[in-house]
What does this fold into?
Amino acid sequence: ILFTGKKFILVLCENQGKANNIIADVADMLNEENIRKTFGDWRLGLETDRLDLKKFGFKCLVVDESQNFSNAHSKRTKALLDIASTIPHRICLSGTPLLNRFSEYWTTLNLIRPDQWRDYASFLRNWCQLIPNGNGGWKATGIKPWRRDEFFQRTKGYVLRRLKRDVLQDLPAF
It folds into this structure.
């Protein structure tokens, strides 16, 4: 949680080091020097502190590694979406290519634009390539090929997508 004058920003990260980096970037963008921060384990606190977090009056939510909330039916994801519903500005960060597991991208889309991506079942039906799973159900294998261009056109105003070939020189060596 960042306290910057009268602005409150909730930052969810895997660890304190990553949170510090995001907080530093946010401080630079806000041109804010007097930032106080507090840390906790978001994996535990998100569910248990949901009601308190909703009442806090956050103006911005930053979710790092948003693919960690890909299971639309998990308690943690439901808690996040509930908390986010009270926060006017939301930013999701992920280095995971959305086309790898397209069906898991709904949570991020719903978090950013709940007015456009309301229902998980209709997202699967309308956008995901589905194949029989052998148990009488369906398995999502990716985006429907004939909807790919439409998807990127529809989301270009709020999804900043980079291809590996375009950023490869900026990635750290392993």
Remarks:
- The beta strands are 2-4, 7-12, 35-37, 60-63, 89-92, 128-132, 138-143.
- The CA atoms of residues 56 and 145 lie 42 Å apart.
